[in-house]
Amino acid sequence: MIRHFSRFLAVMALALFLPPSAHAIRVFFDYRVFHAPGSGPYVEIATSFDPASMNGIPADSLITFAGELTIVFSQGGTVRDFRKSEVRHQAAADNLEPFLSLDRVPLPNGTYEMELSVRDLNDATIQPDVYRQVISIEHPADKIFLSDIQFVSAYSPVVDQNAFTKAGYDLLPYLSSYYPSELNTLIYYAEIYHTAETFGEGQPFVSSVCITDAARNEVADCRRIRREKAALVVPVLQVMDIRNLPTGDYTLRLEVRDRSNALVATCERRFSRNLVAQTQPDPLLVSDDLLRSSFAGQYTHPDTLYAILQSHLPIAKSVERNTIDYQLPGADIRMLQSFFYSFWQKRKPDNPEAGWREYETNLARVQEIFGTKIKKGWQTDRGRVYLQYGAPNTRVTRYHDPDYFPFEIWHYYETNTGLRDRRFLFYNTTLNYDFELLHSDVPDEIQNNDWRRLVRSREASRPTDVSRIASQQLTDPYSGDEIEDLWFNPR
Q1: Terminal C-alpha separation, the chain
Q2: Fold assignment, 1-138
Q3: For 324-448, where are the alpha helices, taking DSSP H only?
Q4: What pLDDT band is residue 472 in, cutting at 50, 70 and 90?
Q5: Fewer Cβ atoms within 10 Å of its own Cβ: the N or the C terminal residue of the chain?
Q6: Has residue 309 got a pLDDT over 50?
Q7: How confident is the model at residue 469 (pLDDT cuts 50, 70, 90)?
Q8: 208 within 8 A of 257, measured Cβ to Cβ
Q9: Which residues contact 65 (CB under 8 A, 6 or more apart)?
Q10: Would the pLDDT of 6 be above 50?
Q11: Do domains 1-138 and 140-276 have the same CATH topology?
């Protein structure tokens, strides 16, 4: 059947509309509503075809797949828009990755029944699968509003304009509202409309995003705030770190606030997170006699030892992190000591205590340098990076430049994980001592291609500060290229 991951995770309800099929194409699709100034609303439909579920035709060393997508929008039985498109794809037999199509359908405000049908053009015996959904479009003409929120799996600066290009980026859609354990970031894209007409072209305002849980409580340390300038369309592309977000149902909430911090527009999108709490992986058998005589046996109070184990999170593997977070709280001292000893025996079999003592020294160092009144050094972004990758070879600091938020750029000739010529950019929007990781070129770390502009957005650090913007002499956030030079040529 066609599987659809869309607003409010209505998968089960939608399945009732799908006919049974002995052999159906596996298709995932999602729709979002955007607005084109001067033209009006349009529905954007992204479709992912699974070639492993299709009949491919071999041609030389490649296999050709062909799907047909039919889209119909109707009101009260009257067809308002009809379109049919062929989607063709060639792939090697050992590389059957899903392939995407994107359709944009302009529609005026109103309520519509959307019908999508998909069939395999290489297999005429299979009846097309059909999906139906009622959608409503309500874009006001005289006030600020937002597009739907689009989840993104990857993005890059545009080289050649194509169907997936928006706001200077190629955006690869993420066609689900489900985030499994292996996904550590949530990337989203949205657009804000009518700010120029409401605030005045180029005038400042603030957009903010947060995550709320199923009880509508805001998740701690998730709110992100950006200073914007009013324009015909204001795009918002942002990466959210969800590596520590527990299993549950959540809502991503995007807000627009004026210079007095009054809420003027908002939109939301729900998603689910599954962070699997795995059991301790292959624990080494440690005898009681060995534990008592080892460094692990020196710690006899469970709370003290568990606090030490928590400080290992920056260097722990994924399964070990889950064990520390979910299996060890409340464990007896024997289990804690065994995990502690095994942790270091795996990393330094010939002398596990030496491994721990070296790490203990680094913990003290990051506590001294990066610890704050509310966070231990290892809990900060800078402390975590220091412990995970080692000390940087160069550390550029800029704390008092009026054109920038305070920032640091760390450069590694080679990390202790074997990566060469890598960088991290930290910045501080709250003007305390806790710097947030904004951008890095290390795989699996936060990557934000808008880092140059964000570091230059000094004037609007918090929503409560926005009311002061009008009385300030605003600097040009794009003046000069010092920060880019420091990124590529740290010194």
Answers
A1: 57
A2: Immunoglobulin-like (2.60.40)
A3: 333-347, 352-370, 381-389
A4: very low
A5: C
A6: yes
A7: very low
A8: yes
A9: 49, 51, 54, 55, 56, 57, 88, 89, 90, 91, 99, 122
A10: no
A11: yes
Tens digit of pLDDT for each residue in 355-407?
999 999 999 999 999 998 888 999 999 999 999 999 999 999 998 888 888 99
Instruction: Give the number of residues written for the chain.
Output: 491
| Higher local confidence (pLDDT), 178 or 9 | 178
Could you give phi then psi for residue 42, rounded to 5 degrees? Answer: -150, 150
Instruction: Return the half-sphere exposure (C-beta side, CA atoms, 13 A cut-off) of residue 323.
Output: 19
Structural domain spans, the chain? 1-138, 140-276, 288-370, 392-488
What are 316-370's pLDDT values in tens digits?
987 788 788 878 888 889 999 999 999 999 999 999 999 999 999 999 999 999 9
DSSP conformation letters of 186-255 = EEEEEEEESHHHHH-TT-EEEEEEEEE-TTSPBPTT--EEEEEE--SEEEEEEEEE-TTPPSEEEEEEEE
Q: Would you tell me which CATH number, out of the four given (1.10.287.70, 3.40.630.190, 2.60.40.2550, 2.60.40.10), belongs to the domain 140-276?
A: 2.60.40.2550
Tokens of 457: 């957005």
Q: Which residues of 371-394 are buried (b: 16+ CB within 10 A; e: fewer)?
A: beeebbbbbbbbbbbbbbbeebee
Take residue 437 and report the two structure tokens written for it: 């990781």
277 vs 15, residue with greater confidence: 277
Tokens of 384: 């975590």
